[in-house]
Amino acid sequence: MLKKNHQIVALAVNTGALLPFHPQLPTVIIATAITILTANIPDIDIKLPFVKHRGFTHTIWSWLLVSLLIYSLTQSKLCASMVSLSYLMHLITDSFSVAGIKWFAPLTTKSHTLFKGYKVGGPTEAVFASLCLGCYIIFIIQIL
């Protein structure tokens, strides 16, 4: 999935999850910033030499490690929740791609795909991201 689409999906999910508990606009603005900044953490492997894309950073172990690290550093449930959900949504949406991800590597080398219907940057991804953007806009309108 493209970077901007990972951010859009994470925004929709995070805002939908946050609203029942924190419907105040300032909190949603902070959560939105955290989400946009962290939705692509798993793709840090693209910039690291000698690290394979969709390797360790695209596993459940990395997600758990980052989630625990962020909470221990910030002691903020809001921040940790937004980062954790953003990271998890990145992994889930990459699981919908043709290539999939190896959720449990190195315990298994099997690549898991939830839906073999979209290619990165393709029309299916664009439609899905557009639907998520629509949901995000509806959530924001509810706050205003």
TrEMBL record:
GO molecular function list: hydrolase activity
Keyword Flavoprotein: no
Residues passing through the membrane, by range: 55-73, 85-105, 125-143
Keyword entries, A-Z: Hydrolase, Membrane, Transmembrane, Transmembrane helix
Coiled coil keyword on record: no
Protein name as it appears in the record: Metal-dependent hydrolase
Species per Swiss-Prot/TrEMBL record: Periweissella beninensis
